[in-house]
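Priority: medium. Attachment 1 of 2:
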């Protein structure tokens, strides 16, 4: 069977050439006589893999020297607890709630201290990003937390909030490496890799060095201290070796493609094709305010649940899969991450045109 166009929100599409390269190395990685899956994380061969992966993401994101890159486990969801455990010195943090994942982080933080909701877009099913240019931010907040791109709702912060001198922490799971980013504006920038970088099982945390201390909340487990992992170069325990190896391959692929400036151009072009169609269609329409649209996740509806279900079913038969929207939004969602080729988006739009004509 030929490969489909996979619009899944995550685990998501990976670059075909990366998958082919990994397949070729599956039984024998570079003459080692074994797969990376079977290899000791303490071996010289693996040490090279993880160090190269770190250097490549540093190059791609222009990560300053005073930031550490940690390859961790537990997904983005584990960071909802790990961040307050390590950073909530005053037991008080601020949250801009723009979707389900920011809301979960906000709720988790309440276990450890006071979580202040600084702004929210829940009043309109998270279909926009609230104005964050002049928020009422209490002086004693330890940090301000955002989810920068909202996978479920298809919104994206176009401008970072004015945190009024407070530390900014951002979950970038679904826009990771999709465009250039100024790492120096964040205290922590992190994301699960299964949307835009690699297979599920790895979360990458980029953290400013002065935030890595022994001064954590009482009762914080050893494995949930950033210092544990920073002191051991992400090798305190057995890391998700194969997942990190795959991320490393994607970093090299991104470098070969021209880096994050080039990815941004490609992603804008792909998103434009889909949004232009949605803005002019008489059947389909987007669910997000135009100024806050994500380049990565595009939710859309017909306004008729039966028609939505029919579209998803027929699209799958045409090789366009995983287009069903999240239950909280309904309708459809096309996730068009870095590895989704422009042809996939063009084929989707072409199918939508045919569907619209046939179901008027």
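Attachment 2 of 2:
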């Amino acid at each position: 069977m030929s490969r489909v166009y996979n619009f899944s929100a995550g685990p998501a599409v990976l670059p075909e050439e990366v998958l082919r390269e990994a397949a070729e190395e599956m039984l024998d990685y570079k003459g080692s006589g074994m797969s990376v899956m079977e290899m000791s994380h303490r071996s010289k061969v693996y040490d090279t893999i993880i160090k190269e992966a770190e250097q490549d993401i540093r190059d791609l994101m222009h990560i300053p020297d005073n930031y550490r890159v940690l390859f961790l486990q537990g997904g983005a969801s584990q960071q909802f607890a790990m961040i307050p455990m390590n950073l909530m010195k005053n037991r008080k943090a601020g949250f801009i709630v723009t979707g389900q994942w920011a809301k979960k982080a906000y709720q988790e933080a309440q276990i450890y201290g006071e979580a202040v909701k600084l702004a929210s877009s829940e009043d309109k099913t998270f279909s926009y990003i609230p104005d964050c240019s002049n928020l009422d931010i209490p002086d004693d907040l330890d940090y301000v937390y955002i989810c920068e791109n909202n996978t479920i709702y298809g919104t994206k912060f176009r401008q970072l909030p004015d945190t009024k001198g407070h530390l900014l922490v951002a979950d970038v799971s679904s826009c990771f490496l999709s465009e250039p980013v100024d790492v120096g504006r964040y205290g922590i920038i992190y994301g699960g890799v299964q949307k835009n970088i690699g297979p599920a099982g790895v979360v990458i945390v980029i953290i400013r060095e002065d935030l890595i201390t022994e001064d954590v909340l009482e009762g914080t487990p050893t494995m949930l201290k950033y210092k544990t992992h920073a002191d051991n170069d992400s090798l305190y325990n057995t890391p998700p070796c194969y997942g990190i190896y795959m991320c490393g391959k994607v970093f090299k692929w991104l470098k070969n493609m021209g880096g994050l400036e080039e990815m941004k151009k490609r992603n804008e072009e792909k998103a434009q094709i889909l949004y232009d169609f949605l803005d002019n269609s008489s059947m389909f329409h987007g669910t997000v305010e135009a100024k806050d649209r994500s380049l990565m996740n595009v939710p859309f509806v017909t306004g008729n649940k039966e028609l939505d279900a029919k579209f998803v079913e027929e699209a799958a038969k045409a090789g366009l899969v995983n287009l069903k929207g999240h239950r909280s939004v309904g309708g459809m969602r096309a996730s068009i991450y870095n590895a989704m080729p422009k042809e996939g988006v063009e084929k989707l739009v072409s199918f939508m045109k045919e569907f619209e004509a046939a179901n008027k």
